Amino acid sequence: MLERKKSYVADGVGTALPVFVVEAGGGVLVDVDGNSLIDLGSGIAVTTVGNSAPAVVRRVAEQLEAFTHTCFMVTPYAGYVDVAERLAELTPGDHAKKSALFNSGAEAVENAVKIARVATGRDAVVVFDHAYHGRTNLTMAMTAKNMPYKHGFGPFAGEVYRAPMSYPLHDGLSGADAAARAIDVIDKQVGATNLACVVIEPIQGEGGFIEPAPGFLPALADWCREHDVVFIADEIQSGFCRTGDWFACDHEGVVPDLVTTAKGIAGGLPLAAVTGRAELMDAVHGGGLGGTYGGNPLACAAALGAIEEMETHDLAGRAREVEALVRGRLEKIAAEHPVVAEIRGRGAMLAIELCRPGTLEPDAARAAAVSAYCHRQGVVTLTCGTWGNVFRFLPPLSISDELLEEAFDVVAEAFAATAP
Ligand SMILES: *Cc1c(COP(=O)(O)O)cnc(C)c1O
Predict the structure, then answer these.
(1) What residue's CA is closest to ligand 1, atom 5?
(2) Comparing C-alpha atoms, which of 305, 270, 333, 348 is closest to residue 52?
(3) Most CB within 10 Å of its CB: which of 92, 134, 142, 322?
(4) pTM reported for the whole predicted model
(5) Which domains does the chain have, with CATH numbers?
């Protein structure tokens, strides 16, 4: 199968593990050879409710029998409206909200920028160091890391400016000081009156699970409000119970003007959304937003099923339980291995950053070695970070404590086995 893949699938599509999955659920992936792997990645934060959660399967099967597609822009159907209603209820803030649905996270981010530009009549977009917003032309421009996301793919979209992120481990700044530093860059290098929107991941994903210091996000949101700049939270990775609340913004009571969602929203089917203040969303002319498949009926049914699972099983609460268990295990590893510079993240979105002991020099080689060891032992782990030195954990919330303990036995073993 690997040889056939090599023959027919483009080499640019990388794969982390040399396996072919035939079954998945409850935190276990089964491959064609009958190997069982414990899943600490959730297909990159997607299968939060599991790989075939009962409510998702039931609703998608019913929808599949009824119809697969009509195109909402031609002949609408209720599922799309139902998802938009649930998004209005669940996203931060109690103001009037509306949504537009898309297929991928990158598409949602692009559309959020389009909406902000029309609503403000301004062009500039501010993003942050270590940001990840996708792989389309505009979102590549917004993404920070060159390899592998941008290398050779330019020229990139213009009017995208980058501000310094709050990164407590490396900058030692308080949230207020880091915000003042970012605002100074924005003010001097862009100017508020040219600025349509500030786009930020409340906890950065691919960039290294960087959690800004408390106060950073509220200060930025306040500055945006003062200057009529649209504050956009990219909650594509951090949203939908992942961090122990519905959205990562909820932890500090930050209310974004627009929020982008995808990944965990629909239990594995492709769906994404922009949700935000009704007056901003409605600034766009009729027909200006859409796409052939955006808000596909099967994906909408899946989202309603995933939200049902999150509510009936209190998966935000489950994410907090997962955090308690995993943090305990990570603290033990950190106590024994000085290469662990920091444990961070929230809920079931946790990471450890590896630096050479006693320094803040990234140790990407160790992260790769630990991850490779876990893969050989059948635990699916992911790395991330601008320097590739962050080991991240995104288990599905359908996983049992027993499996988590077993997986972290392997992670602990991996640190011991790769110690210099
Ligand atoms: C994954 C991700 C995206 C892009 O989503 P795709 O569905 O892969 O296009 C954008 N922003 C964040 C924060 C992400 O984690």
Answers:
(1) 105
(2) 305
(3) 142
(4) 0.98
(5) 2-52+314-417 (3.90.1150.10), 54-312 (3.40.640.10)
